[in-house]
Design a protein that fits this description.
The chain has 1 helix and 6 strands, in the order H-E-E-E-E-E-E. By secondary structure, the chain is of the alpha+beta class. It has a domain of 54 residues. Strands 1, 2, 3, 4, 5 and 6 form a 6-stranded mixed β-sheet that branches. The longest helix has 12 residues. Bound molecules: zinc ion. The site of zinc ion (ZN) has 7 residues, from loops.
């Protein structure tokens, strides 16, 4: 169930993060050569590469990929991602 963010849910979100719950994994593949797994409290459409700072985009068509840590969303800027 999707809820609109409210002040209360924002607090809950932060609490959830504090308790390390609802973590999702993101596989980042950057054109600079960086390839790593990032954890996030929520799914994003954009992410900054930690190596070079370039923006990587969620490839929702590719869906989730298998990583050593489990299923991860695939985010890249190595090719054009349709948004
Ligand atoms: Zn990069």
């Amino acid at each position: 169930m999707i809820q609109q963010p409210t002040a209360a849910s924002k607090v809950n979100e932060q609490l959830a993060e504090a308790y390390n719950q609802h973590k999702i994994l993101i596989q980042v593949e950057c054109k600079c050569g960086a390839s790593y797994i990032e954890e996030s409290a929520y799914k994003r459409n954009k992410w900054g590469c930690k190596e070079c700072g370039e923006i990587v985009f969620l490839d929702s068509k590719k869906g989730m990929v298998d990583t050593v840590k489990g299923k991860a969303w695939y985010m890249t800027n190595r090719y054009f991602v349709e948004r």
